[in-house]
Design a protein that fits this description.
By secondary structure, the protein is α/β, with parallel strands linked by helices. It has two domains: 41 residues; 284 residues, Rossmann fold, CATH 3.40.50.1110.
C-alpha cells in the first residue's frame, strides 16, 4: 500500500515537473515572440517609409478631426505622373510642413493656410504652394514672412474650422487663407448617418447643420475610449500593423479579377462630381433629385466661412478664400482626359449612355457670390494651375502658379504696406533685423 502511494506521488511529481517545464517553455516562447515583435517594430520604424495615405484615422489628432497625418512620420509619395517616389517627414504636429512655433517672433508677418489635399500637395514639400509663397514674398519685399501650411487630404471646411478654433489661432497669424475645392461641398455632408460606420470617411467626430438659421454642431460618440480601445488604437498605429495591412493589400490586388469594379466606382464619383456642378441639368434626373441637398451644402459652407471670418475679425486677423479650381486648368484636364466635349460653346459629359450639360464655372461663381455677400475677400486666379495628367491635383508648376497668384494679390492690397510699416516699428523696438 505504501509502495502504491509512493508510486502515485512520484507520478504526480513527474507530471507537476512536466507541467512546470511546459509552462516555462510557453512563457519563454511568449516572451520571445514579444521580443521579436518589438525588434521588428523598432526596425520598421527606423527604416520603413510609410506610403502616403489620404485618410489616417489612427493618428493622435484623429480623435479630434476624424483623421490626420502622424507627427514626425517618415512618408513616401509617388507623384501621379512619375515612376519615382519622393520622401518627406511631417512636422511635430503631423502637418506636411516645416516646424513652426506656436508663438510668433516679433516683427514677423505670419500667414496661415488651411486646406485639403491641394494644400497638402502631391509634390515634394518645398514645391508646395505654401512653401513657395513664403519664398516669393520674402524675395519680393525683403522682409521676414512666415507661411504655415496645414493641408490634410480629405478634410472639409468643417474640419478646417475646427482646426482654426482649436489650434490655428494659437499660431497668432496676421492673415488666414482658407483653400476651397469643389469637393468641400461633398465633404461637409459626411458622415452620412444612413451609411454603415465602415463607409469611407465615416470616422469624422462631428458634423455641422443649419438649425433655426444658425450653424449647429452635432457631436458623434467617440470611436475610441477606455484601455482596451487605446491598446487597439496603439496597435493600429504601429509600423508592423501598417506593413501587414500593406501586404494584404498587395495580395488582394494580385488576386483581383480585374479593374472593372474600380472603373465603375470611378465613374460614379465623376457622376457625383458633375451633379454638384450642374444640379439643374434637365438631362440628369439624379442631379435634380439632389438639388435640395446641394443647396443645403452651400448654406452650411457659407455659415462655416462666415464663422471663420468672425473668429479672425475678433482678433484683428485678415481672412481670405482661395479656390484651387478657379482657373481654366480643371476644364482643360477634363477635356484632355476625354470626360468633356463641347458643342456650340456648351460643355457636355457622357457617362453610361447619359449626356449631361455641365457648367464648370457654376461653383466658383456661386462661391464668389457668397463671399461678396459676406465681405470675404477671394484671391483671384490669373494664371493656369497646371495639373498632373492622370490626376486632377496640381503639378509642381501648378503649385508655383498658385503661389505667384496669391503673392501678386497680397502685394496689391492697400493694407499690405501699412502692415509692413507696423512690422518695421515692431522690429525697431525689439531690435530684430528684417531678412
Amino acid at each position: 500500500m505504501a509502495s502504491l502511494s509512493t508510486s502515485i506521488n512520484l507520478k504526480g511529481a513527474m507530471l507537476l515537473s512536466k507541467y512546470k517545464i511546459w509552462l516555462k517553455n510557453l512563457l519563454l516562447l511568449f516572451l520571445t515572440c514579444i521580443f521579436i515583435i518589438i525588434i521588428c517594430e523598432l526596425l520598421l520604424s527606423l527604416f520603413i517609409w510609410r506610403i502616403d495615405n489620404q485618410i489616417e484615422p489612427n493618428s493622435p489628432k484623429a480623435r479630434i478631426y476624424g483623421w490626420a497625418p502622424y507627427p514626425k512620420a517618415k512618408m513616401k509619395m509617388r507623384p501621379p505622373d512619375s515612376p519615382r517616389n519622393f520622401y518627406f517627414k511631417t512636422n511635430s504636429q503631423g502637418w506636411k510642413d516645416v516646424e513652426h512655433s506656436r508663438g510668433k517672433r516679433p516683427g514677423v508677418f505670419r500667414i496661415l493656410i488651411i486646406g485639403d489635399s491641394h494644400t497638402y500637395g502631391f509634390v515634394p514639400l518645398e514645391e508646395t504652394y505654401h512653401r513657395r509663397l513664403e519664398k516669393i514674398l520674402r524675395a519680393r519685399i525683403g522682409r521676414e514672412i512666415e507661411v504655415i501650411g496645414v493641408g490634410v487630404c480629405g478634410w472639409g471646411t468643417d474640419q478646417e474650422l475646427e482646426f482654426l478654433q482649436r489650434e490655428g489661432l494659437d499660431y497668432q497669424p496676421d492673415l488666414v487663407i482658407c483653400q476651397f475645392s469643389e469637393n468641400d461641398l461633398v465633404d461637409i455632408t459626411i458622415p452620412d448617418e444612413s451609411k454603415p460606420t465602415s463607409a469611407d470617411r465615416q470616422e469624422k467626430r462631428f458634423k455641422y447643420t443649419i438649425k433655426d438659421g444658425a450653424l449647429h454642431k452635432i457631436k458623434f460618440s467617440q470611436l475610441e475610449g477606455g484601455i482596451i480601445d487605446d491598446i487597439k488604437t496603439w496597435v493600429k498605429r504601429s509600423a508592423l500593423y501598417y506593413e501587414i495591412n500593406l501586404l494584404k493589400f498587395h495580395l488582394k490586388q494580385r488576386t483581383s479579377k480585374g479593374d472593372r469594379s474600380d472603373r465603375e466606382n470611378f465613374l460614379s464619383k465623376i457622376r457625383l462630381f458633375y451633379q454638384f456642378l450642374n444640379p439643374q441639368s434637365p438631362k440628369s434626373t439624379e442631379a435634380a433629385q439632389n438639388y435640395t441637398m446641394i443647396m443645403n451644402s452651400w448654406m452650411v459652407w457659407e455659415k462655416l466661412a462666415v464663422e471663420m471670418q468672425n473668429l479672425c475679425d475678433k482678433q484683428g486677423i485678415k481672412f481670405m478664400i482661395f479656390s484651387e479650381s478657379a482657373d481654366s486648368s480643371l476644364r482643360k484636364w477634363h477635356v484632355d482626359n476625354g470626360w468633356i466635349f463641347s458643342v456650340e460653346n456648351k460643355d457636355f459629359i457622357t457617362i453610361g449612355g447619359d449626356t449631361v450639360e455641365v457648367d464648370l464655372d457654376l461653383i466658383n461663381n456661386r462661391l464668389n457670390e457668397i463671399c461678396r455677400r459676406n465681405n470675404i475677400e477671394v484671391i483671384p486666379a490669373v494664371r493656369e494651375y497646371d495639373r498632373f495628367t492622370s490626376d486632377r491635383h496640381h503639378s509642381s508648376l501648378g503649385n508655383l502658379h498658385m503661389a505667384e497668384d496669391i503673392a501678386d494679390y497680397l502685394l496689391s492690397r492697400p493694407w499690405w504696406e501699412t502692415d509692413l510699416e507696423k512690422i518695421e516699428v515692431i522690429n525697431s523696438k525689439s531690435g530684430t533685423k528684417t531678412k
